[in-house]
Write a sequence for this structure.
C-alpha cells in the first residue's frame, strides 16, 4: 500500500492553507501513533511486506517481514521527515484517517534531502 498526499503549489493554495493543513491521523492496533502533515511538501504512509528466503532469515521458519512507516519531504527546508516506523505482524491493524487540522505532531527524525542519484 502506497499513499501520497501532495498539496497544491502556488500562491492561491498557500493562502488557502495558511492556518489549516491536510494530515494523516494514524493508529496502530487502536493506539494513536502520529498525526503527520505539512503546509507544503509530501506526506507518505507506506506499508510493505517482503519475502525473505529461509537461508537469510533472522529467525527460523520466518520467510517474510512487514513494516509500516509514516514520512515525508518538507519542501520549505528540503528535509526528509519521519513521524513513525514499526514492524507489523499478522493481525495488526493500521488505520489512516485523512483530516484537516491546524496542529500536527513534530517528526521524530529529520535528514537533509539527498540530491541526485548515488551508486551503491
Amino acid at each position: 500500500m502506497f499513499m501520497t498526499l501532495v498539496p497544491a503549489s502556488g500562491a492561491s493554495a498557500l493562502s488557502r492553507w495558511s492556518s489549516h493543513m491536510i494530515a494523516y491521523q494514524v493508529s496502530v492496533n487502536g493506539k494513536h501513533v502520529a498525526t503527520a502533515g505539512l503546509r507544503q511538501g509530501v506526506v507518505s504512509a507506506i506499508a510493505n511486506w517482503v519475502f525473505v528466503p529461509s537461508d537469510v532469515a533472522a529467525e527460523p521458519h520466518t520467510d517474510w517481514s512487514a513494516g509500516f512507516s509514516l514520512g515525508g519531504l518538507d519542501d520549505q527546508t528540503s528535509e526528509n521527515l519521519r513521524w513513525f516506523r514499526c514492524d507489523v505482524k499478522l493481525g495488526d491493524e493500521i488505520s489512516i484517517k485523512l483530516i484537516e487540522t491546524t496542529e500536527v505532531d513534530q517528526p521524530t527524525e529529520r535528514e537533509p534531502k539527498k540530491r541526485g542519484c548515488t551508486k551503491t
